């Protein structure tokens, strides 16, 4: 992104950096500017960097195959046998934004799934998102039901989601839209689950904003963060006016609610909004961060991103095309994934010892979602990725990240596995702006980096000592053994 | 009073039943039922306001707000009892004589010698020597020997050598409350200094030859520079208004070679209201994000903090980079001047960022120069208009700097919070009275104990694990960022929502690193012991049998030692280490910190059964214990969810 003027090119990057180049010679400057313009707004995906990028490192593990749903299912099978893998979407014919395989209740056959798909927006029928080992409760996600104004119903849909309930138990449907929005959606053929048809379910409406509202908020916030004035009042009012932290709070609250229903209430949960590709995924993935210690490890988090974002069909290419400095209004642009990452950071800040990865890891994911040499975040869903032959033609981000050389940078030195559910506070006093992203290019980071280094050193030194002491102890024990053998022949 | 309910602010459903005791010094609430019988202790001197609310069906609610930002809500079943408690607390919370304060009855069981040692811990003479005075330019003046010139100044004051007693006395007559320019900080490296005073009594045109000579003398004491800055920390409007009352500010025309500068820090009344507004925001039951941010902005609190910091940064820059001396004043020169001088000193000199140095700094710029602790913090019943969070703001400035320079300070956040607590607690004599003169008259040092000694004794709890004296960040002058887009001034929930544990990060990096460091130290010791024993063993194996058997005896003994120590390496033990300080209970004669320790207790050991890392996880466990399992009751640390609950109960 850039604005050119009189020998100066200002390049505004998607990672919120602003670079200013002074170029002698007006004509040269214009030429460079138009080249950058052209190159940064390529029309065709296949002309993008990932298709030309040749890795300079040895690929140990192909990231494209690192996180297959089959593995996840295997893990699930070790805990329960009530679910099955369905290949009903093998040709992407039932639901274009779903992956070829999905996990559904065992008692529901593919034929029923096809019918349910017709009853859900975009064919996104309810599928398993998370199984809570502790009490066997589950979280599912889908899109809105197409009830329309005349209250259509679908027996198979009801049967499908009821199949996830234990007898006599109730479940919760978390609709990420406020009630009035959900009601309005009926006029356009959408809608929500009526109590009469879903008597075992309680519906809860949350208010998670979407699309342009988020994007505007993002733009305002970034603008506030680049305001060089020294005025405190102005800064605070701009921060407030951006509403960014309000979105964070709403989102975290909804995720906590979902987690609460599962862990505290012992109930199963179905989450959806309209399309089920944005706010739904934010809620289901954050709830897993709260509930599942596995998701707080590096590999577990990667797997979560793959499952709940990439395979679940979050349209990265549409949402992460321009970032905050876009001049033209992009209809599909929205910082949905960034909001999710920031919420993870907020939880991370409150539980700094419970995550295997550090802040840098989250920032790295933010960068790569917007611009990357890897093909991972290209395309809007698995179907498009398959058509582009991304696994064959581009390198996976995970192939790079999961190498030992890189992993070191993303590890949290304070990590100690915490098997508990972590409940974050969502009070305004507990939430802060993510300086690591928004003030990244403005604040001097030297002192903070030094502090991080110091933390690493303290812990490293401790571990070294521990190792040394253990070696000596063993030696001593051996020598004492010998001693005793010699002493009492 | 029995059957009193202590309400939890965030959720009315969570209340505990217990008994309320009023003693001569504390309000004590003891929980019924639970085995631990958790106790909440509040010092009377911490009470800032008591509010009796309308009686409800369940009883008579009483709201106690404390100066350390604790808010306690009690419901007393009988209205009459409630009224009695209310009346007694009002009396107890507002003592009229110094002798009624806790520090005169507080006895940490130290003998006389230890007490005297404690008072000697911070030595201002030593501090001025450390700065490098007296020297060729500066000397101690004894003009104020018997507080004859200025009763709010200390007896020993450093002034330029060229300023004669006549000049000093003359200058003092031209300054509010006779607070003449005196040395606050001297920079050995370049002879630049920070001096402080009150405003000149210049009115619209008055001038004073001696005062002009005094400023001249300050300039001459810094031969490297041909002018000095005179910094008036007030907004220009306020300073001009003062002229009508015969006070005002220096006229650049009358003084040779001064550069005059207004800084614009608001007065104590504005600050008091600002804090009040911010606390109202903190007390909101379930604020939305924009309620909170709007309230924060509207209170202006962070703006004021920034103004103080900016002033400090300006002065530090003048001294360190330009090598120019600065004279700082406001109106009386004991509030804003103290804030600004101490922030500047802190930025300039790494010593003040150590634990000892920070005590010295408060002793120097606040206690000795007559900051009116009694009036500002309402220790005795007095004019409510005199109360203002002046030193609280300074303490917050330090915290904001710690956020920006995580390795630069030897102490941690807890140190600051405990100092703030004790400024109000009146448990130690340090902060009593309004001036050195009053303290001497009361014989404070003979009758009370020093906080500094107490903090120093427990210094292990207050260390910043990231601090290393040889680290780059600990050296030299700090250059903080000033624009909000470069550095965020944050709301300090650790202070202002100190007692709402639910709002804070559930795992403390500082505590974790402190535990790791402690373990590291144990490991170092063990390593040494092991190496020694290995060496001995190797020697003995080559020696004869006699030696061997002796050696074995010894190794058996030390074997015991190591087995103890090896336990220390399992996580189990290091959580005990961590718990060892909260478990200092009041009954162990270490009563001094009761209120604090109890809160630490709450913070740290909500569930003693949890092993090892539980310490970091206790917050988690605490939360999960909170929600009763039945009745569709969701854990409600967040009331946003409460409203949802309403939805789905009704739905």
Automatic annotation (TrEMBL), chain A:
A Pfam short name: Myotub-related
GO biological process: negative regulation of autophagy; phosphatidylinositol dephosphorylation
Molecular function GO terms recorded: protein phosphatase binding
Stated name of the protein: MTMR9 protein
CDD domains cross-referenced by the UniProt entry: PTP-MTMR9 (cd14536)
Gene3D superfamilies referenced in this protein's UniProt entry, alphabetically: Pleckstrin-homology domain (PH domain)/Phosphotyrosine-binding domain (PTB) (2.30.29.30)
Family: Belongs to the protein-tyrosine phosphatase family. Non-receptor class myotubularin subfamily.
Top-level taxon: Eukaryota
Gene name in the database record: Mtmr9_1
Regions annotated as coiled coil: 448-482
Domain Myotubularin phosphatase: 63-438
Keyword field: Coiled coil
TrEMBL record, chain B:
Compartment(s) where it occurs, according to its Swiss-Prot or TrEMBL record: Cytoplasm; Endomembrane system
Listed InterPro entries: MTMR7_PTP (IPR030572), Myotubularin (IPR030564), Myotubularin-like_Pase_dom (IPR010569), PH-GRAM_MTMR6-9 (IPR048994), PH-like_dom_sf (IPR011993), Prot-tyrosine_phosphatase-like (IPR029021), Tyr_Pase_AS (IPR016130), Tyr_Pase_cat (IPR003595)
Gene Ontology molecular functions: phosphatidylinositol-3,5-bisphosphate phosphatase activity; phosphatidylinositol-3-phosphate phosphatase activity
Boundaries of every Tyrosine specific protein phosphatases domain copy: 299-343
UniProt keyword Methyltransferase, yes or no: no
Polar residues bias: start-end ranges: 557-588
SMART domains: PTPc_motif (SM00404)
UniProt-listed SUPFAM superfamilies: (Phosphotyrosine protein) phosphatases II (SSF52799), PH domain-like (SSF50729)
Record: active site: 330
GO biological process: phosphatidylinositol dephosphorylation
Extent of Basic and acidic residues compositional bias: 545-556
Membrane topology, as annotated: Peripheral membrane protein
Binding residues for substrate: 267-268, 330-336
Family: Belongs to the protein-tyrosine phosphatase family. Non-receptor class myotubularin subfamily.
Protein name: MTMR7 protein
Annotated organism of origin: Menura novaehollandiae
Gene behind this protein: Mtmr7
